[in-house]
Design brief:
Two copies of one chain form a homodimer. Helices cover 37% and strands 20% of the residues of chain A. Chain A contains 13 helices and 19 strands.
């Protein structure tokens, strides 16, 4: 399954298709060395306190920010995402790392729980322990936010796991630069050697997933690639969890009251959302359900023409898939209503709005498969029954939205309830793009939007993916993890004899 | 894969091998009807409060206790587990249901989290929503504690999921009686129709796992059966989680200090633990590592002779597998040191203690496969390095123990740390059998002891298996689940803007 062959990740300027660099894929010995170093780091990281991990992550955030100019220059050259967007994304990356530092320091993620001995039950103390080395597959579309030092890496380090990142071939130089920053910054901050490692290339990724010392996989990307990794992990003698966050068709339902009161605003908002990052967002609205006769597709086409978004896609492969995807949508019964003419050089493609009849939405329809890029489909529903049939036909997705006519919209509550059964996040009167890194965030959703629907790749609960609970029974203080000892030496929130005890302040 | 054929579950007295009854397996229309009823119940159960669910579970507990005499009589006839043990287990079953009622009422399991709008982030509110109909596969060895109304059913109902239980063929009449009790008691307590359903037969179980409206599977039993269900679920178009708690070889390490100070006590405790329920416990100690020259196997053989445990195994199939399992252990290099002669009629087998050289413990050795029944293997280790090699060779397990020479035992802390990497529960100076249902319990462990190592089938966290989080963004109060509304109408613990807010008392 894995050979010793070393292919190259080609760094390409998507605006000009000029080759910028060719980075060799990691050899198998290099992969094994990275995992061996991570394995060595696992024990000291497991026993480190949340406060120690927070220090490492904060140092990493500072180092990333310090390198912002170089990072943005390299990333812009090989992604074409633009200096403004990428500069903001570096800030976001640093702030995410600080957020996970805060979660580690706060300590609730450990789930520390103590049940004192009773007449019928022993002394039981439960804590979440880090799994060990985690393989992270960076995303193509957010080189900083979901890339080499993105949410997966930040939350895994916060949970106490060493990380080996396989960089995305869409931006190999950015990956290499971020990896250098991480190694240097983490070492300087006192993190164990091997806390962070990086590899390159398709075969290195396969080897990571199959390596017996890798304990979990985190992935952001397409369903095709995510499910392939999930199957590979399921073939191991010791199966490990794969947390794959995959592309989906995210639906937006426009209620009659919304269509009556603010159709132009919705059309403009839609264009802003589905062309953001040239549509290369996993939270892009993909399918709009609007009342029959609303003419929403035409409104969107007009708004699209006014904005005329132009720009390259990340890679020639993504651009070719987008064009083929539009063809599949048309074969599936969709009609192009409007689009951008003369999109530009390189990998640029035409943003487009399509319309389809409700009958074209059936199980297995090509319209239910994600088309990664700046396209949205509008389907007009004649009545509530058909609207609900359409919703019931959709696959599980990361996010879904309702556009209402205001807080007294009679359709709002019912639609929110239906969408909660379909998506990991339900949005009302805002657009689906944009995923804040907070305590209450959930970025995941039913199969096939994620391979592990109860998990999130963003927010405080992202740490939970990389640990498993262990209960200690009748264990002497000296043999217990610090977080479970009497006196609460780490001053973290715990549940003791059934009651929540918030963290004790430092004296 | 599934035919319309109806086989029979045979109720058999294991003491006499007399056939007591033949219960027909559910037909496919019966399976579909049970799932359809569960599907109908899913929506009202999802919106029910924890307090409502608690009421249903407490009514169920009362009904189970009220039927204790009939239940024990039927269960004893078809399992041979004895009236005393089974009477205690009915109490345990009822108390577990009350425990899960308490967890539902307390409300932390919802994980309610609210982040207020800030300058850069929207209003986000997160809660765990029940998945929908859950298929439960009851265990053979605990007809009440882990059976039709055991931990899986109790925690799934508490989490707000309808349940369809496939009863274990070792006690089909007990299954039928418990199912009748559940349907009647839940209906009388006001639970939605379809909250509980029951089916019988191997093919009914397969059909359940493949049914598109089943959203999760909970299983307790052998690795063979558990992994088969896991593979079946992974073959679905929409893959669902399988929480399989499977048999393992649970290790117990005896330190030199323990061997020096209390070898006889350890030998007697070991016999009590590994012959409890005639060794038919998933927490049975399976492999003892003792210092070289301690002669622990001989001591256990003497203690075994003194107790002379006799009794039937649950089924002829389990007895045949036990005998074959002993043969495999011997082929793998183990030697029988002592056992029970003339174990008794029916399915009775000889409890036995075996010894093996450390060299016989290698990856893939037959000694690393569970032998379900009253047998334990003793391996003497010459030094710490060989002890640690043996531990590193073992598969993931549900529980592991250390027998120390007291709190100042120099080996204790290191061994607890090693075992925490191997097991879901680590026990010091107590035996592994016995799983208390408390907040801090974890009954699970690394692959292959469970198919989902971060999950537990016992304790407060057992509910987490049957829900997935959803985040509501910018959602009006009227469309939010009650648990997330301003004012905390359910008075549950929540995290608001990062801070834990314990439940507010009723005014």
């Amino acid at each position: 399954m894995v050979s010793g062959y070393t292919a190259y990740d080609i760094s390409l300027d998507p605006r000009t298709l000029t080759e910028l660099a060719a980075l060799p894929g990691s050899t198998l010995p290099e992969v094994y060395a990275a995992v061996a170093a991570a394995y060595t780091a696992a024990a000291p990281m497991s026993s480190s306190s949340g406060a120690e991990r927070a220090g490492w992550l904060e140092a990493l955030a500072t180092a990333v920010e310090a390198a912002v100019e170089d990072l943005v220059a390299v990333a812009d050259a090989e992604t074409g995402l633009g200096v403004a967007r990428l500069t903001g994304e570096v800030t976001r990356c640093a702030n995410q790392l600080r957020f996970y530092a805060g979660i580690a320091r706060e300590g609730s993620f450990l789930g520390a729980t103590i049940d004192s001995r009773t007449a019928t039950t022993p002394d039981l103390r439960r804590i979440r322990r880090p799994l060990g080395p985690v393989a992270v597959f960076g995303a193509s579309n957010f080189p900083f936010g979901f890339g080499t030092l993105g949410n997966d890496t930040g939350s895994a380090l916060a949970a106490g796991c060493p990380v080996v990142v396989k960089g995305h071939p869409a931006h190999p130089q950015t990956h290499a630069m971020l990896a250098d920053i991480a190694r240097t910054a983490l070492a300087a901050a006192g993190a164990p050697d091997g806390a962070f490692g990086a590899v390159t290339g398709f075969e290195a990724g396969q080897a990571l997933v199959l390596h017996p010392q890798i304990t979990a996989v985190a992935f952001t990307g397409s369903q095709h690639a995510g499910l392939a990794l999930w199957s590979l992990a399921a073939s191991r003698p010791v199966v490990i969890p794969v947390f794959a966050e995959m592309g989906t068709v995210n639906p937006v339902v426009v209620t009659p009251a919304a269509a009556d009161s603010r159709l132009t605003e919705i059309a403009e908002g839609c264009v802003g959302s589905f062309t953001l990052g040239m549509g290369q967002f996993c939270t892009k609205p993909g399918l709009l359900l609007a009342p029959l006769g609303s003419g929403l597709a035409t409104h969107i086409a007009e708004a699209l023409l006014a904005v005329n978004p132009r720009g390259p896609l990340l890679t020639p492969g993504i651009a070719a898939n987008y064009v083929a995807g539009i063809d599949r949508l048309v074969l599936g019964g969709a009609v192009v209503i409007g689009g951008v003419v003369d999109p530009g050089p390189g990998t640029a493609v035409s943003a487009a709005v399509l319309a389809a009849a409700p009958e074209s939405i059936q199980p297995g329809s090509p319209l239910l498969a994600e088309c990664f890029g700046p396209v949205v489909i509008v389907v007009e529903y004649p009545d509530t029954a058909e609207r609900d049939r359409l919703l019931a036909t959709l696959d599980g997705c990361l996010v879904a939205a309702v556009m209402t006519g205001g807080d007294d919209d009679p359709d709002a509550a019912d639609l929110v309830g239906q969408l909660a059964g379909l998506a990991g996040r339900v949005v009302v009167d805002e657009w689906t793009t944009g995923v804040a890194t907070t305590w209450a965030q959930h970025h995941g959703g039913p199969w096939p939007s994620t391979s592990s629907p109860a998990s999130t790749s963003v927010g405080a609960a992202a740490l939970d993916r990389f640990s498993r609970p262990v209960t200690y029974q009748n264990t002497p203080q000296s043999a217990l993890p610090a977080a479970l000892r009497d006196g609460n030496p780490w001053r973290i929130p715990r549940r003791v004899d059934g009651r929540i005890q918030p963290a004790e302040p430092e004296e």
